[in-house]
Amino acid sequence: MTRPAACLLTTTMLLIGCMNTTADDERTDRSSSEQRPFIEIEVPPTYHVLGSYDPKWESYIREGIEMARAYWGSYGPTHVWIGGREDERAIDDATREAFIEEYCRWRIAETERTTEECRPYVTERFIDVIESDQPEAYLSWVDEKEQPEAELVFLNVHEWYHEEEVVPDPVLRGIHEYTHVFQMAFGTQPTWMMEGGAVFAESWLVHLQGRRPLEFNLSRIMQRAKSIRDTGLTIADMEDIDTAPEKVAGYHMELAYDTGAWAVAYLIHRSPGRSVARYRDEFHPMITEIGWRKALARYLDIEDEQAFYVAFERFMERPREEQVMILSELKP
Fold first, then answer.
1. pTM, whole model, 2 decimals?
2. Selection from 208, 206, 193, 322 nearest residue 275 by Cα
């Protein structure tokens, strides 16, 4: 099944929003540049749920987030907002008001924002989307507070649920979005590394639990990644979706998510020990220290990021069975 992915959203001002992810192949994101990082924190995420939404959806999302937090580490502060409606049931006034008030209490604290500003924002960004019956999942920054806070938003995730799936899609959404919280604790990374890393995490973490083979989803998205080879576009064109020309942005999903996930797998395979944990524990702190370009070169002992791009393009030309083989060689 083709699944839409989340988006990465910057909300340094109250009224900045995120594009809807309404179609199976539509994925959106925002650049991580110019953002103050999240911090390592012992406090777990705070969950906020629309009162009328079935608790099982929170349970799935929480499962994914806590799985990712256990692996990547605890970062934030993080607030998780969950809402939806099933069977087009109306949200009663009391439930709607309680959710709006809860959000605005948190959102305007420590800022100069007012409740009057917040209410139309939360109505547009949450209630209206819920009542449109369209699913969304994304990370946004709240950068006006003394310490930036992560806001993970999951709306109408039941629309992405399929009973036949071994790992429910909302669990994977939780993994994906919390992986962004981890990434954002270490500074600017290219779009392909951010989204590709989160997609890779979805496969890696459930693989570690023995719930699904690592190649299950990655082999599927390789087909889509290969489908745009004749465009001449590569992940080198997807370093920043915000500045990408229209031609590149049109292949956002295939470049950032699909090809990006394989670029991260290839990066780890080329690294010392081929260890995902080492990628977590050594590579990301290098990004904080010297920036992602120099970190990539140092970690892989290559000249620069262009050398990585050239080598990865050669890898993308190899037969599918050889590409999938590297997944079995990755180490915890």
1. 0.90
2. 208
